[in-house]
Design a protein that fits this description.
DUF3592 domain-containing protein, elongated, alpha+beta, single chain, 129 residues
Length: 129
């Protein structure tokens, strides 16, 4: 009985992770995406339990040519890319505030891991395993 509850809770957590990831990626999948060069202007610091995590803040021109600054949502243990570096960012057309540095390998591995976990849990719950 407890095993069944744990399996269902695990399935719910994995499904929630997949849905949240798809929700964040939906604007990039549904409509046209704009690629622009941006310059790293600083890093946003997040300190927790003695560890410091860094998220780059980049500046680039929006569709009207006005400069906009956006913080990437991905935190890393090192301040990369370095301040002053030029990087390519992507954002849905008309929504420069949703810009992010594309991490195709990271996103691919995330979807593969969550999809695999979802499939294994479904097979275990339904008895296909």
């Amino acid at each position: 009985m407890i095993e069944t509850i744990i399996l269902w809770l695990s399935l719910a957590l994995v499904a929630a992770g997949l849905l949240l990831a798809l929700r964040a990626d939906a604007p990039f999948i549904r409509g046209p995406v704009r690629r622009v060069q941006a310059k790293i202007v600083r890093h946003h610091l997040l300190r927790d339990d003695g560890a410091t995590m860094y998220s780059p803040v980049f500046r680039f021109p929006d569709e009207r040519g006005q400069p906009i600054e956006v913080r990437d949502r991905l935190y890393t243990p090192f301040p990369t890319p370095v301040i002053g570096e030029s990087v390519e960012v992507v954002h849905p057309s008309g929504h420069p505030e949703k810009a992010r540095i594309p991490y195709p390998v990271f996103r691919g591995l995330m979807y593969a891991t969550l999809g695999y976990a979802f499939a294994v849990l479904v097979m275990e719950i339904t008895g296909w395993w």
